[in-house]
Specification:
With about 280 residues, the protein is an alpha+beta fold. The protein contains six helices and 17 strands.
């Protein structure tokens, strides 16, 4: 699989007029299955990411995110002003990447924490944490398996499990995989079953795997993929799982605990996305 750098924008999407492109303004913005706050959170976006408005309904907006995922987001999470295609492209190319930072908001006269994956203006006042421009983030985070594993551990080590979450503040299994791989320049679809269609198939034995490969599991009778984990070094895997409450490292050798044994019993697919 050729690794494609995510452009973190949607200005090139077909059928989207320039005035429908807006910035997410909330630090974390939930994407719902229906236009009501009590409906299922199916994914999230974060501050500075772009969204295409597809439909409006009583304070809610049906949007398409940069990864193609669609759902409902309340207008309160979105900037009120649309962007031209040129402005959206310029933002996508030039806004800096948050690796977990705090910015000072001049308008609100307050500091605001932003998660990994957020985008900030080049002139934003950073009071804590880090932001990187496109060239620097590509240099520091190459599409290399061992490096991806290091980033997963560094940023998601204490993450709690949250269905639909994509940040270290709360994530599900595929949300962590998508965010970490995109940090390293590899654009990924949102769901585990979509991710399981990428790359090349591997044998379902640890000897065939290397750091950065992905393992996919199913707890359904029909075998549909429901979970994903990243292969790490020394015969371990890393994932975010509700059964562990969040981020966990599982050991695949020696005497495994019952949870890890049951997990491997549900292994259905192994894929390699990274070249070399």
């Amino acid at each position: 699989m050729r690794i494609v750098h995510a452009d973190f924008g949607i200005s090139a999407q077909k059928g989207v007029s320039a005035e429908t492109i807006v910035l997410v303004r909330a630090a974390v913005a939930p994407l719902h299955a229906e236009p009501k706050a009590s409906s299922e959170q199916v994914s999230q976006s974060v501050a500075g990411q772009l969204a295409a408005i597809l439909e409006k309904r009583e304070g809610w907006r049906r949007v398409r995110l940069a990864d193609g995922y669609e759902g409902w987001m309340h207008e309160g999470y979105l900037d009120a002003h649309g962007l031209s295609a040129e402005a959206a492209h310029d933002w996508a190319m030039n806004a800096r990447h948050s690796v977990g930072c705090t910015v000072y908001d001049d308008v609100a006269d307050m500091e605001r924490a932003l998660p990994l994956g957020a985008r900030v203006a080049r002139d934003a006042k950073i009071v804590a944490g880090g932001v990187l421009d496109e060239a620097e983030i590509r240099r520091r985070y190459p599409p290399v398996g061992i490096e991806i594993c290091a980033s997963a551990a560094r940023y998601f080590w204490s993450a709690s499990y949250q269905w639909g979450g994509v940040t270290p503040w709360g994530a599900d299994c595929s949300g962590m995989v998508q965010t970490v791989f995109e940090l390293h320049g590899a654009a990924m679809p949102r769901d585990a079953r979509q991710q399981a269609e990428l790359g090349v198939a591997l044998e379902l034995v640890p000897e065939a795997w290397r750091a950065g490969d992905l393992l996919f599991f199913s707890d359904r009778a029909d075998g549909r993929i429901t979970h994903v984990a990243i292969v790490a070094q020394q015969r371990t895997l890393m994932h975010v799982a509700i059964g562990r409450g969040g981020f966990a490292v599982e050991h695949l050798e020696g005497e495994m605990d019952p949870y890890a044994e049951a997990l491997l019993g549900r292994l259905r697919v192994a894929r390699r996305l990274l070249e070399g």
